[in-house]
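Posting for a labmate who doesn't have an account.
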Amino acid sequence: MKYLETYRLVGLPDRAYYIPDFISEGEERSLIEKIQNAPSTRWTVLSRRRLQAWPTQLLQGSILPTTDPIPNWLADSIIPRTIDLGIWSASPHGRANHCLINEYEPGQGIMPHEDGDVYYPMVATVSLNDGIILDVYGKSDDRKRTVKYRIYQEPRSLLVTTDEMYTKYLHGIQEQLVDKDLSSDRISNWHFLSEQTKESIEMNGGLLKRRTKRISLTFRDVKKVRNLSKFLQTK
């Protein structure tokens, strides 16, 4: 955890970390290829994105119905490194046991939401292929949400959120083709962004166009696990 503290996002509630270039370009290409070559039955198509769940979807939204691990092609370049960071040291299984792969076409997003207590309160997200602005909102009964913090997730980066950032805030991605009003005083992880990203934002007047599809790999530790594989026909 001492190494991880180097990448802590100061100014945000406890706690969030951002590590640029967490995986290499070669690892990114390999992951994208494996994801795109997965059987069509692996994809769940939603109105604003599509996703894959590994090793399988949750049962009744809260139980991981298998003790099978996340497959090696998805886990090997990421999970051991997150274990080395110490982020799963207090989680029930000592490592991530579930991964959601979300694919967003330019202009697609997801409404503000929370992940809830199905998971240990820790999320590790690796971004592939394109960057995106993650907006963080305070929980409120008001229908109009106010953005409290903004995090730009570059390709190949790792974003870790836990504690209050997990339990007391919502997060979402706006449905737009261009992320706007970006600057050093509005992006919470500006200090960690590459010079190329910062120069692109500044040269375009605080705008960043979403160029192509973005894929997010979201790793979590599901609390309840049951070995029901023999009773279920998993995809």
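Reply:
Got it, the structure tokens are right above this. The chain has a mean pLDDT of 94.
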